[in-house]
Design brief:
Blueprint (H helix, E strand, L loop, with lengths): L1 H25 L13 H32 L5
Length: 76
């Protein structure tokens, strides 16, 4: 049961880390051409959602690769 707790903690930390990294990277992109000038709030919400989507997708990919690499021992 402790292993499930460790995997949950690693998963949460991974998601937060990759969302943060994605947020830092997305801040360097100029989105002014994609949004109207009076829609600042909507643009920020969109950027937050895109950041969460990309960050969790990358995190899930890394966690899947780690899990699959641990499961390779059952192949042999």
């Amino acid at each position: 049961m402790k292993m499930i707790g460790y995997f949950s903690l690693i998963g949460m930390l991974s998601h937060v880390l990759f969302i943060y990294i994605t947020w830092v990277v997305i801040q360097s992109i100029n989105f002014d051409h994609f949004f109207h000038k009076n829609k600042i709030f909507e643009a920020r919400i969109f950027i937050i959602f895109v950041t969460i989507a990309i960050g969790t997708t990358v995190s899930r990919f890394v966690l899947d690769i780690l899990q699959w690499s641990q499961d390779l021992i059952y192949l042999f």
